[in-house]
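Pilot study result, target chain (286 residues):
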Amino acid sequence: MKRKINCETARDFSVEKALEKLGHFPKRTTEQEAWFLSPFRSETQASFKVSKIKNRWYDHGEGVGGNVIDLVSRILKCSIKETLDYLNNGITDFSFQQQQVFNKNEDQIDITKIQELTHPVLIQYLNFRGITLIISKRYCKEVWYRYKGAQFFAIGLKNHKNGWELRNKLFKNSSSPKSYSYLKKAGTQLIILEGMFDLLSLAVLNNSLLEVSDIVVLNSIDFVKDIDKKIPKYESVHLYLDNDMAGKKATQYLIQTYNQVIDQSSIYKNYKDLNEFICNEKGKIS
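Predicted structure:
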């Protein structure tokens, strides 16, 4: 059994490696130190120093520093216990409500590179969410972007206006313009899902269904009214929306408005969404 770390042993975890896991990379390095753009604010000159000898960080812009626990808890805005869980497991089950969500003004997220999914941190996160790399590559890309001078990478799903939904184990955000994703195969059947991981989870459960269907990923429940005009041209429409108040309200609206709409949420009736279902039912899925 893996022994859990405590505050004393956690302090030995490399500050430089922790920053890398959090999506921050050095602007310059020597044998004794590494310099980063501060993860706490926007800047163009690297003022954030990591001592490789002492394994400590110091932010010259703010005049503050500390150890790896101070750093991770401040960046993630989480408790010491959650920080220890993160350092112990590599991946932690932080609620997205507790995570930092970027302000999505158009000039704040700049996409710098789009490629096939290869980064081990993203692959590890996909595995944690019960998704295989083969399935993920069918629908998603690895997207690198800059936010206020800092570099990040994420699993990306492109929307129909060429914006990106961006997910990694720490952040949930999107680039502008924000919209729904529409994957067309000229079929007579439409699948409507709420988010990126709902799409990937349905592919785990029944990818053959997706292969013969057009697909809409809302990326926000607010886009229901934007996509409902597409529904009349389909013979059947299958809904896989969240089992929360907003998802149920949207499902009720679409079922009452269109005769060909079918609610499929009973498949994961004991869970919030499809991804929570497959993460908890992995061993029972053949």
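One observation from the pilot: Residues 102 and 173 are 6 Å apart (CA to CA). A full batch analysis is planned for the follow-on phase.
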